[in-house]
């Protein structure tokens, strides 16, 4: 592990008030690896209300109040089937205002704008991230959780894998300066997130 990786792991250890043995830390390459280690080694309180379920309920209420849906949405529903292209920017601002949490930013690609990066050896490279709105509601809730983990996660009373995951995502976001949409379960700290 490089210095940045060690500092990130120390920040996660501090939040969870647990120390990862060096031999275990050497096996942690991805967000999922770190998340699973803490999940397996924490004392959980499974009787607590599901945070993921509570966030889904909040998203449903917000979308319903904004007249985006008429019936409950599921975690597997695609955002771009709920938030149509017409007035997308305004709708996203309305969601940000009404939901009560920081939400992931949209990209130019969410509005059909593809940014050309450069031509190299006859190939054209594009610098646009994939549209966030192609994600499903589950991914929106993960990113919502990661952006707001300090408000949402009680580190003295963790009940689920979801809470551990969004905390690891949020701490990683704070430490490595990438956008929340870039942090996935399978994201490698070095290859995908640029942490040495």
Mind explaining what this structure looks like?
The chain has 8 helices and 2 strands, in the order H-H-H-H-H-E-E-H-H-H. The protein is mainly alpha-helical and 196 residues long. Strands 1-2 form a two-stranded antiparallel sheet. Strand 1 and strand 2 (123-126) form a beta hairpin. 26% of the residues are buried. The mean pLDDT is 91.
What are the salient characteristics of this protein?
single chain, 196 residues, mainly alpha, two-stranded antiparallel sheet, 2 strands, 5% strand
> Counting H and I runs of at least 4 residues, what is the number of helices?
8
What share of residues is helical? 40-55%
Radius of gyration: 18 Å
Overall 3D shape = flat
Mean pLDDT rating? 91
Number of strands: 2
Q: Measure the end-to-end span.
A: 7 Å
Low-confidence regions: none
Cross-sheet strand order for the largest sheet? 1-2
Biggest sheet statistics:
2 strands, antiparallel
Strand content: under 5%
Order of helices and strands: HHHHHEEHHH
- Broad structural category: mainly alpha
What's the gist of this structure?
Helix content is 44%, strand content 5%. The chain has 196 residues and is mainly alpha-helical.
């Amino acid at each position: 592990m490089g210095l940045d990786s060690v500092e990130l792991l120390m920040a996660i250890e501090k939040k969870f008030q647990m120390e990862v043995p060096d031999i275990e830390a050497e096996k942690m390459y991805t967000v999922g690896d770190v998340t699973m280690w803490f999940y397996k080694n924490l004392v959980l309180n499974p009787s607590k209300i599901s945070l993921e379920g509570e966030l889904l309920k909040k998203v449903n209420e917000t979308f319903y109040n904004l007249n985006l849906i008429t019936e409950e949405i599921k975690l597997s529903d695609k955002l771009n089937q709920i938030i149509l292209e017409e007035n997308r920017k305004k709708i996203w601002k309305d969601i940000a205002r009404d939901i009560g949490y920081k939400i992931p930013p949209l990209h130019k690609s969410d509005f059909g704008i593809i940014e050309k990066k450069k031509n190299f050896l006859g190939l054209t490279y594009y610098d646009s991230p994939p549209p966030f709105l192609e994600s499903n509601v589950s991914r929106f809730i993960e990113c919502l959780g990661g952006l707001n983990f300090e408000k949402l996660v009680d580190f003295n009373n963790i009940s689920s894998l979801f809470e551990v995951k969004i905390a690891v995502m949020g701490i990683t976001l704070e430490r490595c300066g990438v956008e929340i949409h870039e942090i996935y379960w399978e994201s490698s700290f070095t290859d995908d997130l640029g942490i040495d």
